[in-house]
Amino acid sequence: MKRPTGTPKRTGRSPVADKRSFADANTAKTKAKIHRKRKPAPKRGNVVVRGVAGTVTLIWRIIWGSLWRLAMVFALILGAATAYYFVGLPEAQALFDGRARGSVTMMDREGRVFAWRGETFGMVSSDKIAPVLKEAVIATEDRRFYGHMGISPRGIASAVSINMAAGRGPLEGHGGSTITQQVAKLLCLGDSFDPIRWKNEAEFEADCRETSLWRKVKEVPFSFALEAKYSKDDILNIYMNRSYLGAGARGFEAASQRYFNKPASEVNAAEAAMLAGLLRAPSYYAPTANLQRSQDRANVILGLMAEQNYLDQTELAEARANPARLSQAAAARAGGYFADWVMETGPGFLTTETTEDVTIKTTFDQRIQRAAERALQRVFDEKVDEGSKAQAAVVVMSADGAVRAMVGGRDNTAQGTFNRATQAKRQTGSSFKPFVFGAALEAGYSPSDIVQDAPLTIHIRGSSPWSPQNYTRRYSGPVTLTTALKNSLNTATIRLQETVGRDQVRRVAHDFGIVSNLTTSPSLGLGASEATLLELTGAYAGIRNGGTSVAPYGLIELRLGSDDQPLMGQAGGFGERVLSQRAAGQLIYMMSQVIDSGTGGRAKLDRPAAGKTGTTSSYRDAWFVGFTEQYVTGVWMGYDDNTPLKGVTGGGLPAEIWQAVMSEIHEGLPVLPLSTVSPDGSGIVMSGEGMPRVVTSGSADDPLAAALAGAMSNGGGQGGGRVITAPGETPQGQAPQTPGNTNSADSDDALSRALNGILGGT
């Protein structure tokens, strides 16, 4: 058989060939694997380098593993805290008014607001605020407000850098807080006032405003909760309603009304910048404290607004050329002492401690107040040495006790300062003497009766003898009561007092409103007792209105919020009759002579007026109190530390201040006479429009007054010029006289009854 040639054609598998082929393949793979396993890794660097690298790698792996785990834990804690705060947040509107107490708004006699106490508030939403005001706030406080979620890491880092560069601690000075964080602080992180934990609201707020690392940490979840709960406009609403902006204004609406007398929706760019500038330091930048400083701060805010494209260059130039100015009421700053007095005299739960918003209508007259302040300042500028610490106080009221103006000291800008018109009790000096002469006239004496002005010694049981002296150290001998009062003669006054009786003098003074403790010693008649200027002026108002006492008052009516019906009405006004109409009329005539020809000559006006000077023996106090038909005004001058005045008496600077004040407040008013009893007893000087007129017996135009004048003429109302002596003292050639032992006195008593009946007395 022929052997086949070429490559054999395989039609099946050859067991032998396959086995060898698979065996060779497996062997090659196994050898390659063994070869790879045994091949050593390439060595890079020495052992030290490899050791450091391995250590760093290990530390990084540990740190990284710890960081992401800590971050996860922190995120869980932050989320839980945010959720906790979120659940406790109320509706946004409930957070607008955060005051613990209410406010008191005071209106003058014409219904115009002139003063506020407490924290005034006016709720307003961001859509009711001028857009330029919102822009000013955002430009000043948080330019990225609409772009963050409550926290601005960039702002915090920038603030820390600024603080450190200035040498302060990282959290001292600039806080880098967003508006949301500031709202968190305003809300005290959700805490409310607890009287057990905090003594008062001031301590509570101070704790809320504390800047510490822990409080900053707590602000983060609270801020996130605010952002999650409220819209940006809601957060801005809370901020603009709760922020304190100085002068007792809480929120931008209240501040706009306080400073500019307009709603926040109507402010212009300059006013908006001034309001936004208050956020940094409300009391320091308040325009009522320093307008120029507030305007300078507003210029900075205007620059920020221009940088952030809220204002173009034309608008910027216009705003800077026309800076914001205070309203007339805010600029006047009138009535601070008056407002403090009303707060003190009103019921505490409706004034100083009110939790409601209260409106009080008062007797205050802004025109008279400004006139009194101008006159006082002018006299001090012209007559008092620069740098003098001497103080003065002024009270102006109507005859019924309605207080129209009050100056409690030379500084009329501060609130809550010492009020020398109502709080300072000082010896009254000779300004007390009208009560001595009023008691004598009520007892039946007349202005033409005679009293000795001569040396006098009074023996006081248990004490050394007391000998009063006149200011001039000279004596006038026998003088009428009118002369004794107008020349302020001390020995004549004490003789009269001892004759009438100290108890009667004390009764008249007390019933007229001198409620301070009155001495029982003979020095009573020379003003050794103390009184406030308000008390003394009110007592003179009782003389002015014909002998009926008055209680000085400032409150006319009080309302809660916008209630239609007042909660309380006037407290004060006319009281009981103290002197008869005859005695009061005669006393007014005698006091008019003090100004016409006596110690009060510097107080002379272009119209009838009456008053009395007063100087204490140590020259620590000087007074002038007097009245016209329209107003009663009292002036006190002295030092707070009781330093004696140098060369100042009641007839000097106090009389000049009185004259300046009265001239100012009477400008444009008609000239009216005082209602007095004519000194010769022929009739009654009746007040009214035009010149004074004396109604005598038989006058047809006033039958009642004519009948009264006839009774006076028939009764010998002036008493015939009797000589008055102190008990136990006998003038030459005469027997001692006491009131009521002559026909003249009897007729005076009858006359007093007639006057009371005809003129409506008691």
From TrEMBL:
Pfam families: Transgly, Transpeptidase. GO terms for molecular function: carboxypeptidase activity; penicillin binding; peptidoglycan glycosyltransferase activity. Residues 731-745 have a biased composition (Polar residues). Residues 393-636 form the Penicillin-binding protein transpeptidase domain. Residues 1-22, 716-762 are annotated as: Disordered. Gene3D superfamilies: Biosynthetic peptidoglycan transglycosylase-like, DD-peptidase/beta-lactamase superfamily. Keywords: Carboxypeptidase, Glycosyltransferase, Hydrolase, Membrane, Multifunctional enzyme, Protease, Transferase, Transmembrane, Transmembrane helix. Signal peptide: none annotated. This is peptidoglycan glycosyltransferase. The chain crosses the membrane at residues 70-89. Residues 119-305 form the Glycosyl transferase family domain. PANTHER family: BINDING PROTEIN TRANSPEPTIDASE, PUTATIVE-RELATED, PEPTIDOGLYCAN GLYCOSYLTRANSFERASE. It comes from the Bacteria. GO terms for biological process: peptidoglycan biosynthetic process; proteolysis.
